[in-house]
Amino acid sequence: MNLPWHLYVMSVLYILAGFNHFRKPGMYIRIIPPIFKNPKTINIISGAAEIILGILLMISSTSQLAAWGIIVLLIAVFPANLFMFQNKKAGFGLPKWILFVRLPLQIVLIFWAYQYTL
Asked: Which of 93, 100, 78 is nearest to 33 (CA)?
């Protein structure tokens, strides 16, 4: 089965984002809400998950399962996006409207991943 080119785009984006968790961990640790314990571990797990799921998206026999994994991951990291919006320090000084736009962007990303579960 040939995979569409846009699935490869998605794959590369998640792989790059995953590697960024290890390249700049402080950036991600900073946006993990304090209610969650062990932010360093959460950063490692989420970064590894992005890399693994990105790779699995490119394999036709695992792409559907990986797309479901991406959906679960996007839901799991939503509290970090919400925390960025609510907490000025976690928002990296970005304008509030950009942080607000990121919230519904999660829905767009979930919808994009869902296209590959069918």
From this structure: 78
The pLDDT of residue 89 = 76
Distance from C-alpha of 9 to C-alpha of 75, rounded to nearest angstrom: 20
Tokens describing residue 83: 């925390």
Helices marked H in 38-95: 39-57, 63-76, 78-86
Query: Please, are residues 107 and 74 in contact by the beta-carbon 8 Å criterion?
Result: no
pLDDT digits 0-9 by tens, 22-44: 999 999 999 999 999 999 999 99
Query: Cα–Cα distance between 73 and 97 in angstroms, integer?
Result: 24
Q: Please enumerate in sequence order all residues whose Cβ is within 8 A of that of 1, keeping only pairs 6 or more positions apart, or say none.
A: 60
End-to-end C-alpha distance for the chain, whole angstroms: 14
